[in-house]
Amino acid sequence: MSRAVLGVALLAVTTLLNCGGRQADYVSTGSLCGVRGLAGEPIPDVAGPGACGIDNAVMVRAVSGIRLTSPAQVNCTTARALKSWVDNGIKPAVGRKGGGIEALQVAASYACRGRNRQVGAKLSEHGKGNAVDISAILLRDGSKLTVQDDWRRERKIMSRIHQSACGTFGTVLGPNSDSFHQDHFHVDTASHRGGPYCR
Ligand SMILES: [Zn+2]
User: Fold this and answer.
1) How far apart are the CA of 186 and the centre of ligand 1, in A?
2) Contact 24/31 with Cβ under 8 angstroms?
3) Residue 33: which of 60, 62, 72 has the closest Cα?
4) Rounded mean pLDDT for each run of 10 residues along the chain, 199 residues in total
5) Which positions ≥6 away from 167 have C-beta within 8 Å?
6) Ligand 1 center to residue 148 CA distance, Å?
7) Given its phi and psi angles, is residue 46 left (phi above 0), alpha (psi -120 to 50 degrees) or beta?
8) Who's near 15: CB < 8 A, 6+ residues apart?
9) CA 194 to ligand 1 centroid distance, Å
10) pLDDT at 21
């Protein structure tokens, strides 16, 4: 093996090790938005286009030691609500099933678009950094609970997860709400005059 090849190989191994270490760190530590257990980093606020944007923008990568499959781009209010939902709702509902929770599958967070991706509809809470869509809970044994398949199959766990978001979030939508929410839970921190809207 030539020296150059050896060098490249060593560099690759070192890089891999470093990445592994960093990943473990961000899952276990962090205090984004002044909350211990929220891991990720602040990002520049998003302004526009139009009414879209995020104040106090952050990229959440893990919540209470649970990894997000893709980082959630939200505001701090929503990041804190997510932490509270994980601690007080999702974790207790799943318990030790499948060895416990490995990760939350994030289907969407910030996106400048109309409600339910309909053109011309009112701006979605996703366009303000107020919303997260969760489509599945990945378990440590490699199995998962998906909203699509387990809403009925694992009724008790899934409805407990859904109900526990209500109040922490102003809007909670699941398969019982409409055809747009058959495969994910939509939660957002909008406040409604009549109290939280949960379906
Ligand atoms: Zn949504």
Assistant:
1) 4
2) no
3) 60
4) 50 44 53 94 93 96 97 98 98 98 98 88 95 98 98 98 98 97 98 95
5) 196
6) 15
7) beta
8) none
9) 20
10) 42
